[in-house]
Design goal:
Order of helices and strands: HEEHHEHHEHEHEHHEHEHEE
Number of helices: 11
Largest sheet: 10 strands, mixed
Distance between the termini: 40 Å
CATH superfamily: Aldolase class I
CATH class: Alpha Beta
Strand content: 15-25%
Structural class: alpha/beta
Number of strands: 10
Shape: globular
Oligomer: single chain
């Protein structure tokens, strides 16, 4: 085992193939101790304790300043060896259960919540890396739905051609919007692909036509990208998302070597930033999750935003 994999295992990752992995979300741990739910449950009805946080690939063509992973590990533009989608799903569930097994003897655990957690219903394809670099992503999503899992796919938009080839849309499709301009995007995301801005804009256009629930997510980093609300508004209008999430950057992992605690905005900072953007795109603040410093925007609220299972 190479040093990179050893480091990731120490950080709580479990490999589900040569390039795929899973990790228990901190909110899942809190949920089974009845210490709160994540924003995805509050905003969309996804049961926190039944969510598998995973990725079909650890590699990424961007090296974002705010990313919690080591930028020296798994940074590439393409994949060679490919894990099988069915094996990724099976191994993700198995590793999730193994990671949760240690909680059984903890007296602070809600046994009913733990039992639910051992029977996951949702895959958050967003752990680390860029999922759309995985050539069999379409097969993975189809197989997840065949097995009655819901799927939230998060992409940085560098591979619009992968999105265009999806045979089946994820339950919810996220596009990360990290900067309001090409110049700032280059500074913050450090893309390896030369035509990054063209690729990103193609993904914005794809989102505007996607036949599924769509989200633009802005990870808000104080003194870095919480600026030029008009620039964000222009890009969001191109994507026409169902939802916009404005969420605080967290000073964790390797990002602590690149940024400081001063880059972490307060809840009030995020709310104010979201409010300014909302006015420019004619959206409303329809929900918030103070613990995550997350603000949800939409044209109008509607009962169906809470998914039913």
């Amino acid at each position: 085992m190479n040093a990179g994999k050893k480091q990731l295992l120490k950080q709580g990752y479990r490999f589900t193939g040569e390039h795929s992995s899973v990790k228990i979300c901190e909110w899942t741990k809190r949920a089974i101790k009845n210490e709160g739910i994540c924003y995805k449950q509050k905003f969309y009805g996804i049961n926190t304790c039944q969510c598998v946080q995973m990725t079909p690939t650890m590699i990424c063509p961007n090296r974002c300043q705010f990313c919690w992973r080591s930028l020296d590990l798994y940074t590439a533009e393409e994949m060679k060896e490919l894990d099988d989608p069915k094996e990724i799903i099976k191994n993700s569930v198995e590793q999730q259960k193994l990671l949760l097994a240690g909680f059984g003897g903890n007296k602070t655990i809600d046994k009913e919540m733990l039992n639910k957690a051992l029977n996951p219903k949702h895959f958050a394809i967003s752990l680390t890396g860029e999922p759309t670099i995985y050539p069999k992503l379409s097969e993975l999503i189809v197989e997840l739905h065949k097995q009655k899992f819901t799927s939230f796919l998060v992409t940085n938009g560098m591979y619009p051609e992968t999105l265009e080839k999806l045979k089946e849309m994820p339950t919810q499709l996220y596009l990360s919007l990290d900067a309001p301009t090409k110049e700032l995007y280059k500074k913050i995301d450090n893309p390896m692909l030369k035509d990054y801005w063209e690729r990103f804009n193609k993904s914005l256009e794809f989102l505007s036509k996607a036949k599924t629930r769509t989200v633009i997510r802005i990870t808000s980093v104080k003194k870095l990208n919480m600026c030029d609300e008009a620039g964000y508004a222009k890009l969001i209008k191109k994507a026409k998302p169902m939802f916009v999430e404005v969420k605080s950057y967290s000073w964790v992992g390797e990002s602590r070597e690149r940024l400081t605690e001063e880059n972490v905005p307060s809840y009030e900072d995020c709310f104010s930033f979201a409010e300014k953007i909302a006015k420019l795109i004619d959206y409303k603040i329809i929900d918030t999750h103070r613990e995550s410093k997350a603000i949800l925007l939409a044209k109008e609220d509607f009962p169906e935003r809470i998914l039913k299972f």
